[in-house]
């Protein structure tokens, strides 16, 4: 970082939501990764210049997280100039990395892009954050991996406190623009200050809650967490890492599923979460073998940019999502569309009551307490819910810009192997095809376990799409 003296505009304490991500880093949570497969050899100099322009335009990604051991506090300290370094791995080095990953039997049928994504998710540069020996860490990293057959994987890895899903989508689109054939000289607006945290932008009165109401809600969240059903835990003792299973549905079946959602006035998140609960309840991997009714936790993440003061655009980098936790009782035999409607209505009712704003501090507090006291969760698993989904789906269509840079495929998600749900769904409709990156903690759950769950979800969704006229 520059040795120039810092002014007040270059330092900002993290907000409550950002702080929960920083606290979670020791367990591995707080990592967002975007992995891009390309058929064009990336010009490292050109890529670095593009990333520097992004850093100039978005101060949050040219910041470092500073930890103060004495006060146990974190701050963003913004550099006056961009500084990212692009690591490059030649084909031999990449092959050695992949060979080590392929040594695991469960990884042998997985694509190089998929394995590199997992490798980066678990290449945790923030592992020692929070120790007095390491009080300063970057929030933005870039790497290029060379593959056989004239293919490369470009990876951007960010601290989640600086990157929610909306940021990741904008980051990809801006990067493609800046690395386009005719865009090398494109200039972007330079900004100097890191924007305020989400808590500081909530409209006055929207997050207001009496002390009594806050206490009752926190007690309710705490007690209910012990009653939630999970998948069977395979290994609660070994160190955790992140693994990913991909759910792909062809365009025709995707169209039918989306039509079913539209006909019922719900979003895809309702169908995804309902399919997850139905699949879990009928799975052999469920915690209990009896088929009595069970309660499951569902977290829905919603982007708050449009309701903040001042309102933020989708091009505004940072973490501005909030969560709503709802619980649902499953008896067995539920129909997808009926359950999806019920779950989506429950979410929208909570959102209309501003729970995504009023409960924000409570959920962040409980998340931090759970990390400090793993025994508060089932089998010390640090599970907060069964599944998490996003309210809004990302839609992406291939275009000339993507073709210019040779983009063949990409995968993007955030790690949840510190504390979080058993499965987190990152959904995209790309060229009409549903593409879900399903993230889970290993070895708490196995790849076989989650693959079977995801396959069951896919079958439930496809079948429901074919019978979208039914309830």
Q: How would you portray this structure in words?
A:
This protein is an alpha+beta fold. The chain has two domains: 8-191, Chloramphenicol acetyltransferase-like domain (Chloramphenicol Acetyltransferase); 199-466, 2-Layer Sandwich (Chloramphenicol Acetyltransferase), CATH 3.30.559.30. It is built from 13 helices and 16 strands. It has helices at 16-24, 44-57, 91-102, 112-121, 165-178, 211-225, 251-263, 268-281, 336-352, 355-358, 360-372, 400-404, 447-466; strands spanning 11-13, 31-38, 63-68, 73-78, 86-89, 136-138, 140-147, 151-159, 241-249, 294-303, 321-330, 383-390, 394-396, 407-414, 420-430, 433-442. The strands form three sheets. Strands 9, 10, 11, 12, 13, 15 and 16 form a seven-stranded mixed beta sheet that branches. Strands 5-7-8-2-14 form a five-stranded mixed beta sheet, with helices on both faces. Helix 2 (44-57) crosses helix 5 and helix 8 (268-281) crosses helix 9 (336-352). It comes from Corchorus capsularis (Jute). This is Transferase. InterPro entries: CAT-like_dom_sf.
**Mean pLDDT, nearest integer?**
87
CATH class of the largest domain reads: Alpha Beta
Shape: globular
Helix/strand order, N-terminal first: EHEHEEEHHEEEHHEHHEEHHHEEHEEEH
Number of strands: 16
Q: What's the story with the biggest beta sheet?
A: 7 strands, mixed
- The residue ranges in which pLDDT falls below 50 over 5 or more consecutive positions are 1-5, 128-133
What is the gyration radius calculated from CA atoms?
22 Å
Q: What is the level-2 CATH architecture name of the largest domain?
A: 2-Layer Sandwich
CATH H-tier superfamily of the largest domain: Nonribosomal peptide synthetase, condensation domain
């Amino acid at each position: 970082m520059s040795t120039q003296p810092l002014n007040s505009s270059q330092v900002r304490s993290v907000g409550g939501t950002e702080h929960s991500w920083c606290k979670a880093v020791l367990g591995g949570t707080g990592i967002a990764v975007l992995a891009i497969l390309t058929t064009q050899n990336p010009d490292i100099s050109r890529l670095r210049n593009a990333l520097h322009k992004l850093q100039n335009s978005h101060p949050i990604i040219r910041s470092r997280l500073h930890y103060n051991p004495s006060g146990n506090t974190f701050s963003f300290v913004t550099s006056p100039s961009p500084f990212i370094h692009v690591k490059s791995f030649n084909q031999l080095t990449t092959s050695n990395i992949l060979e080590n990953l392929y040594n695991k039997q469960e990884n042998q049928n997985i694509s190089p892009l998929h394995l590199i994504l997992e490798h980066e998710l678990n290449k945790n540069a923030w592992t020692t954050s929070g120790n007095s020996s390491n009080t300063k860490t970057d929030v933005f990293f870039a790497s290029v991996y060379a593959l056989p057959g004239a293919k490369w994987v470009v990876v951007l890895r960010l601290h989640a406190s600086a990157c929610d899903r909306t940021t990741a989508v904008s980051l990809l689109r801006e990067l493609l623009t800046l690395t386009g054939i005719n865009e090398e000289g494109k200039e972007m607006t330079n900004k100097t200050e890191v924007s305020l945290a989400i808590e500081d932008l909530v409209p006055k009165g929207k997050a207001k809650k009496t002390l009594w109401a806050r206490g009752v809600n926190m007690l309710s969240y705490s007690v209910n967490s012990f009653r939630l059903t999970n998948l069977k835990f395979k290994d609660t003792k070994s160190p955790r890492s992140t693994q990913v299973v991909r759910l792909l549905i062809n365009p025709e079946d995707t169209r039918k599923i989306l039509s079913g959602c539209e006909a019922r006035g719900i979003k895809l998140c309702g169908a995804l979460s309902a399919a997850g609960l139905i699949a879990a309840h009928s799975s052999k991997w469920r915690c209990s073998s009896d088929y009595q009714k069970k309660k499951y936790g569902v977290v829905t993440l919603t982007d708050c940019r449009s309701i903040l003061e001042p309102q933020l655009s989708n091009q505004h980098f940072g973490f501005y999502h909030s969560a709503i936790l709802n619980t649902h009782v499953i008896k067995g035999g539920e129909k997808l569309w009926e359950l999806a409607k019920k779950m989506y209505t429950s979410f929208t009712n909570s959102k209309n009551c501003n729970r995504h704003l009023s409960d924000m501090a409570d959920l962040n507090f409980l998340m931090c307490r759970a990390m400090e006291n793993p025994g508060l969760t089932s089998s010390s698993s640090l599970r907060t819910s069964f599944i998490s989904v996003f309210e809004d789906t990302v839609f992406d269509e291939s275009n000339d810009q993507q073709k210019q840079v040779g983009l063949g495929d990409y995968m993007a998600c955030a790690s949840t192997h510190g504390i979080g749900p058993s499965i987190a769904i990152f959904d995209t409709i790309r060229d009409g095809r549903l593409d879900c990156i399903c993230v889970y903690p290993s070895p708490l759950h196995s790849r076989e376990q989650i693959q079977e769950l995801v396959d069951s979800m896919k079958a439930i969704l496809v079948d429901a799409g074919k019978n979208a006229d039914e309830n």
